[in-house]
Here is the input.
Amino acid sequence: MGVIGRLREDVEAARRGDPAARSGLEIALLYPGLHAVWAHRVWHALWRRRVRFLARAGSQLTRWLTGIEIHPGASIGRRLFIDHGMGVVIGETAEVGDDVMLYHGVTLGGRTRDGGKRHPTLEDGVAVGAGAKVLGPITIGARSVIGANAVVTRDAPPDSVLTGVPARPRTGSSTADARALLLSAPDYTI
Here is the structure.
């Protein structure tokens, strides 16, 4: 898929993720989460080519312009949608799968100063609520939902619903219903 195709795919992901979206043009011009993801692709390419200072400088400029900090070393999948976005932080060794949705104030951070993998992995289809903190080299399984202000420090299997401090995963037959409620019902928004 070419650059234009990827840009259109990102705009469509934002349209699906935000019921307030009015047009593709509005999304492309006015959504800082989208701008941060687009800029990250440039900085990440420089990072991988070992042009690290310029990549870090670019990511800091993007942070200043959007309020969203994505380290250029982070691996971001396709169709990431960051809704509102202010205060989102994604650390250097974080890995974000395809079709992930993050709300404002989310941190994908580390818990140690040791080298190596320090940040979380979010598998495909994960949704993370406003203010949630996902910390350390943990893995959140595909299609899981993390509730607003949860603090997650342990692995979670696919199709989990994680809430609380510290967050504990709930899985099972009711997980699909809980996930649908968290993503759609106004009383349970994330």
Observations:
- The radius of gyration is 16 Å.
- Residues 185-190 have pLDDT under 50 and may be disordered.
